């Protein structure tokens, strides 16, 4: 298959696509957060990519079967019916999703055990949803990657970068938990958490 027409859904600031040395003849990226959309325009516009702002949860503004390849990295809730709709026959969806309970050791340190609805992102459930939308799941893999935090400063940095992990985080608000974490790191040498990722490849037959 010649992936001459491709889309990256939820592209953030376009950083991943920008790493590609060669883009398809037509490359479309979508993003829902305006600051990221502008960054993607600066990064990818000069290379001929089309940047389309699409609010989360809204239908993709593309024709049925418009793309031979659709990719995504870390989608919050994959819209499988829309993905299937915009894929051409024989087209492929290839993505890296956040896996189940990713970084939960660290999140639970600050917030306690998460409610059941946060225990989503199960690979088999996502695969079932893809099949229900009419796609054939070709490959499904999950990796559990070790994360080591050697000091509290590294924890503060990641929580300020991944603000959805502990949404109300501030150094002052969680000072006590940070002190306990510092003690734990000094005793053990590192705080260990695990980042999980799911690779999914699906085809529109």
From TrEMBL:
Q: Where is the Methyltransferase type domain?
A: 8-93
Which Pfam families would you find in this protein's record? Methyltransf_11 (PF08241)
The keyword Methyltransferase is assigned to this record = yes
GO terms classed as biological process = methylation
Query: What UniProt keywords apply to this chain's record, in alphabetical order?
Result: Methyltransferase, Transferase
Named from the GO MF annotations, one term is:
methyltransferase activity
Its domain of life reads Bacteria
Asked if Transferase is a keyword of the record, the answer is yes
The protein's matches in InterPro entries, at most eight in alphabetical order, are given as:
23S_rRNA_MeTrnsfrase_RlmA (IPR052939), Methyltransf_11 (IPR013216), SAM-dependent_MTases_sf (IPR029063)
Q: What is this protein called?
A: SAM-dependent methyltransferase
| The species this protein was found in | Actinoplanes sandaracinus
Q: What is the lineage of its organism?
A: Bacteria, Bacillati, Actinomycetota, Actinomycetes, Micromonosporales
């Amino acid at each position: 298959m010649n992936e001459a027409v491709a889309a990256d859904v939820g592209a953030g600031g376009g950083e991943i696509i920008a790493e590609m040395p060669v883009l398809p003849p037509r490359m479309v990226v979508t993003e829902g957060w305006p600051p990221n959309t502008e960054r993607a325009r600066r990064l990818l516009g000069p290379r001929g990519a089309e940047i389309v702002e699409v609010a989360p949860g809204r239908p993709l503004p593309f024709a049925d079967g418009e793309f031979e390849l659709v990719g995504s990295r870390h989608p919050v809730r994959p819209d499988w019916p829309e993905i299937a709709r915009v894929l051409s026959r024989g087209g492929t969806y290839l993505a890296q999703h956040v896996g189940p309970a990713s970084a939960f050791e660290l999140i639970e340190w600050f917030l306690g055990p998460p409610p059941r609805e946060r225990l989503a992102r199960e690979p088999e459930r996502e695969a079932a949803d893809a099949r229900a939308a009419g796609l054939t799941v070709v490959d499904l893999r999950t990796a559990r990657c070790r994360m080591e935090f050697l000091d509290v400063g590294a924890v503060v940095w990641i929580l300020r970068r991944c603000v959805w992990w502990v949404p109300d985080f501030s150094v002052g608000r969680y000072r006590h938990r940070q002190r306990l974490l510092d003690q734990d790191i000094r005793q053990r040498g590192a705080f260990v958490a695990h980042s999980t990722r799911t690779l999914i490849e699906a085809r529109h037959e």
